[in-house]
Amino acid sequence: MNRCQRWIPALLLAAVLVAIASNAEPQSATIGVAASVTPSAEGGVGTVFQTLKPGSELQASETVRTGDAGQADLVFIDRTNLSVEPTSEVVLDKFVYDPVGSSGKVVLKTNRGAFRFVTGTQDSSAYQLDTPYGTLNVRGE
Amino acid sequence: MTHFRISKKVVAALLSVGVSAGGLMVPTESRAQGAAAANGATVSLEVKPQNERRVGGCDVKLTIENLPPGKTADFTSTCPPGEANCTPQTFRNLRSGTYCLRGGVLASTSGGGGHSIGGSPSSPGGGGCPPNQGSQNCMNNQQ
User: Fold this and answer.
1) Do the Cβ atoms of A10 and B11 come within 8 Å?
2) Is B74 a residue whose pLDDT tops 80?
3) 3-state DSSP assignment of residue B94
4) pTM, whole model, 2 decimals?
């Protein structure tokens, strides 16, 4: 019995940590990850940028930019894929994931460069691509 | 009385699972399947930097593929800051194909049904649709 009692505090601690971790409201929600990265590629908000690595988490409002040889494949929680080619910059401007309803909205703001974008599981009208020259939307007929 | 012995490894594993479950917003499944989610609408985009003075080429080169049935794309042009004689235009009913935006005019360079979609009806080289035309075959509606 004594042996069991010794573990009770540890188990309680584990349970508390699990509860805290699963209920924690992150300061900025993770909306996706970098699936693969060819240096150099970095992501950040404001003036603080960090080198992107495979598995790096992406936040809403984050800017992703690549260098001359850089390339980043990003996968979002709705399975949207975005390939950011060399010498490119994109702001993950807005990301609302609504897996069951129609209120989802994904807005990517491209400043320069080349991109390949594959919509995810949300309705295609949820996606919007902004460029300095105009905005692309998908509509129902 | 039956005693259950729980090893330190089990506790460590519990802690590990708990912490990562809370911090992991992206399901592992999504990472694995994301690369395979290639059946969505696909847009390839090349955007020329606004400060680039290179003459020629497209300001935006756009390739649309795999649009879902019944869906089309719209592109609404933006006037550069300080451009007084510019009117934003919306180019509607874009289908799969490649398009080039130059000087505020979006033109199909391949596919897209082969329609000329640039310019307003009165502009040279326009070939656009009459204003407010409801035809689904018309790909240009001026705002």
Assistant:
1) yes
2) yes
3) strand
4) 0.69
